[in-house]
Amino acid sequence: MNFQVTVLKILVSYPGGFAGMADLKRDMAILATSGPDWAERTKRLAARVPDLDIFSQGLIERMNGGWRITDKGRAVLDVMEARHPAPQTAHVDASHPATSPPPFPIMARPGKRTRRQRRQAARERARAKAS
């Protein structure tokens, strides 16, 4: 699990982007024990910004017994979560994040069901089982 990516993801989920240390620790513990999916996801996100340093780059700020994500932190997180890879670059400059939309729609892989399709199938199975 990538600590810095996890901190950004946790902070962005709180109102105003601020979380107290107790909340951060609790959420980190939950995510750390949630299984390999979270670790793999944060690893992939961190690979998009290899020189990520949330403190020295001003992506979060310490205040009132907790941490708050900055606008710059939100922008860098948006870059990391972009569904299309950066064009032939392994380095993203955290001081100037790109915010352009994907140039093409993201399509599911052939033969792979989407989350919506899996949920719909599960609902249909539940209805059939109930009747």
Characterization of this structure:
This is Restriction system protein Mrr-like N-terminal domain-containing protein. The chain has 131 residues and is mostly helical. Helices cover 47% and strands 8% of the residues. A three-stranded antiparallel β-sheet has the order 1-3-2.
Spatial separation of the terminal alpha carbons: 44 Å
Low-confidence region ranges: 100-108
The ordered string of helix (H) and strand (E) elements is HEHHEEHH
Give the overall pLDDT as a whole number: 79
* Content-based structural category: mainly alpha
In the sheet with the most strands, the strands line up as 1-3-2
Total strands: 3
As for the CATH topology, it is Arc Repressor Mutant, subunit A
- By CATH reckoning, the class would read Mainly Alpha
- Tell me what portion of residues adopts beta-strand conformation: 5-15%
Major sheet summary line: 3 strands, antiparallel
Shape: elongated
Helix content: 40-55%
CATH architecture: Orthogonal Bundle
Number of domains: 1
Radius of gyration: 18 Å
Number of helices: 5
